[in-house]
Amino acid sequence: MGKPKRERTLADNEAKAVTRMLRVSPRKLNLVAAAIRGKKVGSALADLTFSRKRIAGDVKKTLMSAIANAENNHDLDVDSLVVAEAHVGKAFVIKRFHARARGRASRIEKPFSNLTIVVRQVEESA
């Protein structure tokens, strides 16, 4: 028997990729994600390639995965894809302690993030 197949949450002209546990704060990751939102895929890849942010390489890998999902799993045209959504979520936070003066300690927080990129195929306007 088994359970019934889950319905697809995205539209037929969309594909997505998710990367979890990126070792960067959501606030910093959102700066890079905001730079590619709404752009054509080629332009977004170029921006990420030449970005000076450390996390841009991981965002580029996620975007390339979304493009591959669109091409291989959903038969979408790569040349007409745009970044429909790029949203960032909080994952867990590792807490560490750092020795300070006079026998005290202060807490260091090391946050992690989740990244979701959705690409959508759009028709070229004449």
Automatic annotation (TrEMBL):
- Gene3D superfamilies tied to this protein: Ribosomal protein L22/L17 (3.90.470.10)
- Keyword annotations from UniProtKB, A to Z: Ribonucleoprotein, Ribosomal protein, RNA-binding, rRNA-binding
The record's InterPro entries line, in alphabetical order, gives: Ribosomal_uL22, Ribosomal_uL22_bac/chlpt-type, Ribosomal_uL22_bac/org-type, Ribosomal_uL22_CS, Ribosomal_uL22_sf
User: Biological process GO terms, please?
Assistant: translation
Q: Can you name a GO cellular component term?
A: cytosolic large ribosomal subunit
Looking at the keywords, is Ribosomal protein present? yes
Q: Which SUPFAM superfamilies match?
A: Ribosomal protein L22
Q: Which domain of life is it from?
A: Bacteria
Q: Could you say which protein family the record assigns here?
A: Belongs to the universal ribosomal protein uL22 family.
Q: What does this protein do?
A: This protein binds specifically to 23S rRNA; its binding is stimulated by other ribosomal proteins, e.g., L4, L17, and L20. It is important during the early stages of 50S assembly. It makes multiple contacts with different domains of the 23S rRNA in the assembled 50S subunit and ribosome.
NCBIfam families in the cross-refs? rplV_bact
Q: Please name the HAMAP family in this protein's record.
A: Ribosomal_uL22_B
**Quaternary arrangement and interactors, per the entry?**
Part of the 50S ribosomal subunit.
Q: What is this protein called?
A: Large ribosomal subunit protein uL22
- Which organism is the protein's source? Polymorphum gilvum (strain LMG 25793 / CGMCC 1.9160 / SL003B-26A1)
What gene is this protein a product of? rplV
